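Retry 2 of 3 after timeout on previous attempt. Resubmitting structure tokens to design endpoint.
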């Protein structure tokens, strides 16, 4: 920092110049992100409340009451009006909180140390295991790319504290058999956490639209906690993740006492202290504004475009879908060309897709329009026509 500050005009000019290097959602080139542009209404509300801190909720009791109401709305979406929880920094923090809560359960605190996750689990579970010094057991997937239930059964040991099911995997959007996981969790008295960071704001609306997609929520007795992220398909601002518990009993002994706050003593089970009130207010407003109908329409449009992408990929020689999309996520690979080279060529043309072992992932978020997808398919076909045949060196998604 220099001794003398710069004028605001100079700073704004510099910011505009530097941020010219950022990508933007309106270009339609961001095809591999689970975040999107919030509504203008959401952004306006967010920017009006930047000073609100839910790390000290006694000062911001109105904001705090909106958080409880937002959690109630999300709880109802997940078939549990009794749900409690927090809006936190994102899916990673939500998953950390869930695993910590499972680890702290009175039946196994300090005695058991293993968590069982599908191979498709997000890296946040590796972070949780690393931070809490837990053993992470990764269970293979079946031919549908959801977790192999028999393998989960075999992996359960006297040391298991937590099973994880995914509702909307990061790579392909698949949904695990949460009913079967719930039965296993009940039989073995294990915490079942469902990571619906992405699928939580998609699956309920797909069901309302008549799609045949698995249930994943508190309908199943064994589910003790769910991650569901407003800043993904909830169209909330960043940061906004959600951790929802079946009831306050599940949080059990996982509260920290925070006595020094200006607003008075609180108990808190989040990882971070200072927390965005603006995100909570903006998210509450977004859910009130869109209603189920609004979300349903957004999900319907995303699914229509997803089907266009899937059909388009299917029609291009040399590439193939890894599986038919279950939600607005499409994974494709190639037996003819090296998928890593396809990724490189797409990036050279400005396409920001997601690269997973052996496949490219596209997420059709609300900012993706039909015209963007048509341009993408045109480029993909051009790339495959130019590339020299050289099969992908498969590691994971080798099954044909
Ligand atoms: C299923 C799943 N869980 C958790 C996360 C982590 O979310 P965040 O990036 O908000 O921490 C992601 C991110 O894509 C995800 O797909």
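Retry 2 succeeded. Sequence:
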């Amino acid at each position: 920092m220099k001794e003398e500050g710069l004028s605001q005009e100079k700073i704004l000019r510099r910011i505009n110049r530097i941020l010219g290097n950022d990508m933007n959602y309106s270009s339609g080139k961001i095809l591999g992100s689970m975040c999107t542009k919030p509504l203008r209404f959401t952004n306006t509300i967010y920017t009006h409340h930047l000073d609100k801190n839910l790390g000290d909720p006694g000062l911001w009791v109105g904001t705090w009451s909106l958080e409880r109401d937002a959690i109630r709305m999300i709880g109802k979406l997940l078939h549990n009006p009794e749900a409690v929880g927090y809006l936190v920094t994102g899916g990673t923090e939500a998953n950390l909180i869930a695993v910590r809560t499972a680890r702290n359960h009175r039946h196994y605190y300090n005695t058991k140390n293993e968590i069982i996750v599908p191979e498709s689990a997000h890296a946040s579970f590796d972070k949780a295991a690393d931070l809490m010094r837990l053993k992470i057991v990764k269970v293979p997937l079946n031919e549908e790319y959801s977790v192999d239930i028999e393998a989960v059964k075999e992996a359960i040991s006297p040391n298991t504290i937590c099973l994880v099911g995914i509702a909307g995997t990061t790579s392909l959007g698949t949904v695990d058999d949460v009913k079967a996981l719930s039965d296993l969790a009940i039989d073995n008295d294990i915490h079942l956490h469902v990571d619906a960071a992405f699928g939580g704001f998609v699956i309920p609306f797909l069901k309302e639209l008549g799609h045949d997609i698995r249930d994943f929520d508190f309908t199943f007795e064994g589910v003790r906690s769910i991650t569901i992220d407003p800043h993904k398909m909830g169209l909330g601002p960043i940061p906004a993740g959600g951790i929802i518990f079946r009831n306050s009993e599940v949080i059990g002994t996982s509260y920290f006492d925070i006595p020094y706050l200006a607003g008075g003593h609180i108990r808190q089970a989040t990882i971070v202290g200072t927390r965005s009130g603006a995100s909570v207010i903006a998210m509450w407003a977004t859910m009130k504004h869109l209603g189920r109908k609004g979300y349903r329409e957004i999900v319907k449009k995303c699914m229509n475009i997803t089907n266009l992408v899937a059909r388009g990929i299917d029609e291009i020689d040399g590439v193939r879908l890894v599986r038919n999309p279950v939600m607005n996520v499409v994974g494709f690979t190639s037996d003819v060309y090296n998928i890593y080279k396809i990724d490189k060529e797409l990036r050279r043309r400005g396409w920001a897709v997601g690269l997973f072992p052996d496949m490219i992932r596209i997420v059709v978020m609300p900012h993706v329009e039909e015209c963007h997808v048509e341009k993408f398919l045109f480029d993909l076909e051009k790339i495959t026509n130019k590339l020299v045949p050289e099969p992908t060196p498969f590691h994971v998604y080798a099954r044909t």
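Attempt log closed. The mean pLDDT is 96.
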